[in-house]
Design a protein that fits this description.
Elements (H helix, E strand, L loop, with lengths): L6 E9 L3 H8 L8 E6 L30 H4 L1 H9 L1 H8 L6 H10 L10 H21 L3 E6 L2 E7 L2 E6 L4 E9 L17 E2 L6 H9 L4 E4 L3 H13 L7 E5 L6 E2 L20 H17 L4 H14 L9 H4 L2 H8 L2 E2 L1 H12 L3 E5 L1 E7 L4 E6 L5 E6 L1 E4 L11 H8 L4 E2 L6 E3 L10 E3 L4 E4 L2 E2 L7 H11 L4
Helix pairs in contact: 1-6, 1-15, 9-12
The structure holds flavin-adenine dinucleotide.
């Protein structure tokens, strides 16, 4: 690891240390004598990023957080990697709570290790291994590689490319740059950080754990994947019989579990082109989903089938009008919601036993009392109500007041990338180009690439890696 000096020059720079930055690195085509600089906040663990971080060995919740889909839906190469190390995986996971091996047992017995919801840290191990291979390939070729633990704060055009500035005061001139800084922060709500509330689950586990262990009711704002992680956190600390959880989600629904079946099958949508409106195209999609269900397809097959379909047949093939096409993804996101099999099945069981309650509504604010919090909510018909609880965790995901990392904020302010007026996500040019020549940008927050509104969210490792490959003319 090199220490930052104030002025450096690179042929190419990669900003970010997650799976998207790694996908750019894997396609990086530098030659002997050229310099690559990689900058990230955890660059020593390049390839993991935020979601697949290395856990702390002393915590009960290490390995508790799982991937949201079967291993081979994320990447068949990862599923093979996992299967090859099954003995090590079993050793690591034995005796842990929740009992992941027990939940995986029916799949393992059916010879379907590829179908398990692996702990996210294992996917990070796999990605870190791919990163080492990619870096050593470039090093063997004679490329000079510099890695900097630093945060890029701005980018501006310069004579032979661009100049980047960092938090630690480095100034880097580069001919080209790939930027993969991850998505924006969770949206914040009044009172979500205090004595009885945490603004997120990640990084806040020790103080949430204190309340779980003390027997407090845990209230989750939002019913998405982070809420499922809160359930896993509870299960790592106390028996299921002692769990007390309340989840407030806009529709009061828990996403469908993505259950793998053998032989694997994908729904194959047949959709007609030439739609004039989002309404007519969505109505056709709704019929296709209903027909897939009638044929016995489950959400894993439907969701993975539509994802494969739209990766091969972009949305703009069906709906030429850009503003109409931009209205499709939010509905698709809702209709094709799915998540971690193990946790969602546990969740349903705990709801049945009355240990977890799901409340339809939107949280407005949290107020802290002497020995707990009061949550202020609005129900789907607009009525206001409150709930007194032990400890609140904000699992709301990105929203209107989310914040981007400093470089993304700078690029938006300079119109190097744009916000899409309909999705409120980020819009980049064809093959992820920005308005600065040689500078590309890709993150889960991107909703439009060139003239293509992305049909399904890029908060998906397989999708991100596919679009990064496409930006390099592959895939
Ligand atoms: C908790 C969580 C769980 C998820 N689970 C799944 C899952 O099970 N399956 C799935 O397919 N997807 C999942 N996702 C979606 C996920 O966003 C993608 O799969 C993927 O991790 C995104 O990778 P990325 O490299 O684009 O971003 P990130 O993983 O966020 O990595 C970006 C990195 O860049 C660094 N960075 C940011 N700004 C700067 C800057 N200005 N300068 C330098 N460095 C910077 C950040 O610190 C971060 O480490 C999950 C996401 C989260 C947050």
């Amino acid at each position: 690891m090199n220490a930052p000096s104030t002025a450096q020059t690179a042929t190419h720079v990669i900003v970010g240390d997650g799976i998207t930055a790694l996908a750019f690195l894997e396609h990086c085509d530098l030659r002997a004598g050229e310099t690559l600089i990689i900058l990230g906040k955890m660059v020593s663990r390049f390839g993991r990023g935020m979601a697949y971080a290395k856990g702390d060995p002393d915590t009960p919740w290490r390995y508790a957080y799982l991937l949201n889909s079967p291993a081979d839906d994320i990447d068949p190469a990862f599923a093979a990697w996992l299967s090859d190390r099954w003995d090590n995986v079993s050793d690591t996971m034995s005796g842990r709570s929740p009992d992941w091996l027990h939940a995986a047992a029916p799949l393992v017995a059916a010879g379907d290790i590829y179908g398990v919801n692996a702990p996210r840290e294992f996917y990070g191990d796999f990605m870190e291994e791919l990163a080492r291979i990619a870096l050593s390939r470039l090093e063997k070729r004679g490329v000079r590689i510099v890695t900097l633990n630093d945060c890029v704060t701005s980018i501006a055009p310069a004579e032979n490319g661009v100049v980047l500035k960092t938090e630690k005061g480095a100034q880097i001139s580069a001919e080209s740059v790939d930027i993969a800084p991850g998505g924006p922060s969770t949206m914040r709500l009044a009172g979500d950080d205090g004595t009885f509330a945490a603004p997120s689950v990640f990084g806040q586990e020790p103080r949430i754990a204190e309340h779980i262990r003390a027997g407090a009711e845990i209230f989750c704002i939002g019913g998405n994947a982070a809420m499922l992680d809160v359930l896993r956190l509870c299960q790592s600390l106390i028996p299921n019989e002692d769990i007390k959880m309340v989840v407030c989600a806009p529709d009061g629904d828990i996403p469908a579990p993505l259950v793998p079946r053998l032989p694997r099958k994908l729904t194959k949508p047949t959709l007609t082109r030439g739609h004039d409106t989002a309404k007519s195209f969505l109505s056709e999609i709704e019929d296709e989903i209903a027909s897939a269900r009638r044929n016995g397809d489950e959400m894993r097959e439907i969701r993975a089938g539509f994802r494969a379909h739209f990766l091969a047949n972009p949305l703009n093939l069906y709906l030429a009008d850009l503003d109409e096409a931009r209205q499709v993804p939010s509905k698709l996101r809702f209709w094709l919601r799915g998540g971690t099999r193990d946790t969602i099945l546990d969740m349903h069981r705990l709801v049945g036993e009355g240990r977890v309650k799901v409340v339809p509504g939107l949280v407005k604010s949290v107020e802290h009392g002497k020995d707990g919090a009061t949550v202020y909510m609005r129900d789907p018909s607009g009525g206001e109500f409150t709930h007194n609880t032990g400890f609140v965790v904000n699992c709301a995901g990105a929203g209107p007041n989310s914040r981007y990392d400093p470089l993304t904020a700078d690029m938006l302010a300079k119109s190097v990338i744009e916000i899409c007026p309909v999705s409120r996500g980020i819009k980049v040019g064809a093959v992820c180009q920005t308005t600065l020549p040689g500078v590309r940008y890709l993150s889960p927050a991107v909703t439009e690439i060139g003239e293509e509104p992305i049909a399904m969210p890029l908060y998906d490792a397989h999708m991100l890696r596919t679009y990064a490959a496409r930006a390099n003319g592959l895939g």
